[in-house]
Write a structure and sequence with these properties.
By secondary structure, the protein is of the alpha+beta class. Strands 5-4-10-1-2-9-6-7 form an 8-stranded antiparallel β-sheet. It is built from 9 helices and 23 strands. The radius of gyration is 31 Å and the shape is elongated.
């Protein structure tokens, strides 16, 4: 018994022993035994001290300069933001002012408490190293951020790595009232949960939220409705396709409109050429002999750049294309900037559609960790079912886990979390980052154009 009392706390602190307790929190069954074990065997904070980013241990000195870390944030309907924190060094007093890493302005605590259960909080006067406390009214301290006394600089500390979200959905508020409240609700929920993230996709202009699983996002959605009265609809996010050309072509458009009084007239002849990947859009003025007045050339370019931004085949940016304006006609009275802006845009659409246009799709880099026994099936699924390419693979955990590095089109992995969970009995996981854009196969392009393709009327 004496040896167990000595070594169990050390083993827990080093991660070699993980106690598991079956308990029933509503009836209390098993709770007393669990608490007795924690009181007897849980490691003292000194056995596993927190370190700063340089690897130096932060000593548990109650007389030292204050150093604490927030490990959770909660939103309380009565007191607002509540920060749960651990004191690592020094002593925190109830009336103190603290500062975090995102602001140099001190904020006075709205009380200092010890949390008891889900809702009850006992007020305390001070907290010393190793103690878990909570406080309110501090806006500039978030999850896993350190804090110290106002007027000083917080110590940068080592914090746990936050796993990257694997599941993303697009979000739309159900009503105008929900639209007005959704921003504040999502802001509070992201402050509470570092694995939940939201953003407005700059390419598709959709509001998207990301989490660890379908269940995670369902829980977030339920919280939004229960706490803030916000209801939402979700769907798969749009894919930000790009588009380019594969061969040179020429385009032309004459814009002519007469409706009594002054009319509109502008005519453009252009050449379209493909450029190397990453070149973007290049506009060249090759007009000679005054066929189009110099002051109207910027209007042509402006019309084309608006088309580049909004796309021709589908909604999405046009890339790696050069356009030369080499000829045209104008009318001394009827020609103006608006006429040539429209003529340039329509000529560009005409030339683009004759230049072997193709769609480009985002390709993601996946790092997939699966039990080695399942690796063959995952490998086959990636290459034969998802148009993917395996770039590398290796073993970890003495061969028990296989990590597969693959490049796969985003369109083929939007629901991959469900399929991987099914294929590996819940033991597989993955991370996903953007890799590059590549051409959509012709058969797939026809499907996308049938669903999302734009119609262009040249008349």
């Amino acid at each position: 018994d004496d040896e167990l009392h000595t070594h169990i706390p050390n083993a827990i602190a080093k991660g070699g022993l993980i106690p598991i307790f079956p308990v029933h929190p509503e009836s209390g069954l098993g709770m007393e035994e669990m608490l007795e074990f924690l009181a007897e065997y849980a490691p003292n904070p000194a056995l596993d001290p927190t370190t700063d980013t340089e690897g130096n241990a932060i000593e548990l000195d109650p007389e030292g300069e204050l150093c604490g870390v927030a490990f959770a944030v909660r939103s309380d309907p009565h007191v607002g933001k509540v920060v749960l924190a651990k004191i690592l060094r020094g002593t925190l007093a109830a009336g103190a002012s603290v500062v975090g890493p995102r602001s140099d302005r001190g904020e006075k605590l709205g009380g200092l408490f010890r949390s008891v259960g889900k809702k009850k909080r006992d007020a305390i006067e001070t907290a010393k190293p190793g103690e878990i406390v909570c406080f309110s009214k501090v806006e500039h301290v978030g999850t896993w951020e350190p804090f110290t006394e106002a007027g000083k600089t917080p110590v940068a500390i080592e914090t746990p790595a936050v796993p990257a979200p694997m599941v993303t959905v697009a979000v739309e508020p159900k009503s105008r009232a929900d639209e007005q409240k959704i921003g504040e609700a999502l802001g509070k929920l992201t402050a509470e949960d570092p694995t939940f993230r939201t953003l407005v996709d700059p390419k598709t202009r959709e509001l998207v939220m990301s989490g660890m699983s379908d269940l995670h996002l369902q829980v977030v959605e339920a919280r939004m409705k229960r706490r803030y009265g916000v209801e939402i609809n979700t769907h798969a996010p749009k894919i930000a396709y790009r588009q380019t050309v594969t061969k040179p072509s020429e385009g032309h458009h004459r814009h002519k409109k007469q409706s009594g009084g002054r009319g509109q007239f502008g005519e453009c002849y252009i050449r379209v050429k493909p450029l190397e990947q990453g070149a973007g859009f290049v506009f060249s003025d090759k007009v000679v002999g005054g066929a189009i007045p110099r002051n109207l050339i910027p209007a042509i370019e402006k019309g084309m750049r608006e088309i580049v931004e909004h796309g021709i085949l589908v909604d999405g940016e046009v890339v790696d294309v050069e356009v030369e304006v080499y000829d045209g006609k104008f009318h001394a009275v009827d020609s103006d900037e608006a006429s040539f802006k429209l003529a340039g845009a329509r000529a560009f659409i005409d030339g683009f559609q004759k230049a072997g246009p193709i769609l480009l799709e985002p390709v993601m880099e996946l790092l997939i960790s699966v039990p080695t026994d399942d690796a063959g099936a995952i490998f086959s699924d990636i290459t034969s079912q998802r148009r993917g390419h395996v770039m590398d693979q290796w073993n970890e955990d003495n061969g028990a886990v296989t990590v597969i590095k693959a490049h796969v089109p985003l369109a083929c992995v939007q629901t991959y979390h469900r399929d991987l969970k099914s294929q590996t009995a819940g033991e597989g996981s993955y991370t996903m980052t953007f890799a590059d854009y590549s051409a959509v196969p012709a058969s797939e392009q026809q499907k996308v154009l049938a669903e999302q393709g734009k119609k262009h009327d040249h008349d």
